[in-house]
Amino acid sequence: MTRLYVHEVVTRDGFQIEPRFIPTEQKIAVIDALSQAGLHKIEVTSFVSPKAVPALADAEAVMAGIKRNPKVKYVALVANPRGAERALAANVDEIVMVVSVSESHNRANVRRSTDQSFAGFAEIMQAIRGTGVGTACGMATTFGCPFEGFQKPERIYAFAQRLADLGIGAIGLADTVGMGNPKQVLEISREVARRLSQVELALHLHNTRGMGLANVVAGLDAGITHYESSLGGLGGCPFAPGATGNICTEDLVHMLESMGHDTGIDLDRLIRTARGLPELVGHDVPGQVMKAGKSTDLHPLPADTR
Ligand code: COA
Ligand code: ZN
Prior knowledge:
- The protein contains 13 helices and eight strands.
- The chain is of the alpha/beta class.
- Helix 2 packs across helix 3.
- The longest helix is centred in the middle third of the chain and has 15 residues.
- The termini are far apart.
- The site of zinc ion (ZN) has 8 residues, from loops.
């Protein structure tokens, strides 16, 4: 039985693309409910330009309002040094930077070249030094870009190496628009893990083409122990055409636990919280276990059955 770690991203990746602004106190209520569920990390919000992502314009208020469980790491996404300053002031446990492997998506997402992004990370690492705050970086479009298609594996490995050389402690290989397939995810994850054994490696997967949980199984084969997912399967990058939801947290945990892995997560609590999402966001959500129930939830045989 392998110990696996689940990072919840619904209030960041999930809510960033919702057209209806989720009120601050409701974001806080979702995070507070998730804080008791046994998740390893919760990506609370992002400290980016409120013009770029109006849905998360209340980042400071959300961070200030949550009740923190000391067992959970509360992390936030940043795209530039200004965002890192705001995140440090808000007392996050870990700053998550983001760069796209594809030059085009990096420009669409953060309006700069990947070299400019790396230069910003060096500045951010200077600002963080000595604070005890953790560092991570998401590598968007690792498994495919909506503008450029599949990226050369050597470019992916070089990006991961540059992040490790900056001293960044964790890397999330991200399938921004769900183009990755299990064979590719296995090969790339295994090779990054082989080259960077000192870095905490996570997979950040989207289910845009129905390959999300198959890609998790490929990740398990590659020895990956950290997975990022979103409650109810909400999510998507507003700067990637056709983006849809992340892999769904409760579906992921249900699968992992039924395969005999230990996630340390209270699945019933996740499902209860997920069932509140459609009302909160005003539409149906992709999660399946929240609708079907767990595979161990059996039904009484109808009385007229012979
Ligand atoms: N927090 C708050 N405001 C910020 C900011 C930050 N971290 N960084 C920039 N801004 C503001 C500036 O003050 C400026 O405001 P103004 O127009 O009122 O003067 C405006 O945003 C533009 O600033 P600029 O430095 O010219 O940025 P840009 O237009 O080149 O955009 C980013 C760059 C990174 C700020 C922007 O693209 C962004 O925030 N992207 C978010 C990407 C994202 O979250 N993607 C989804 C997750 S992967
Ligand atoms: Zn994502």
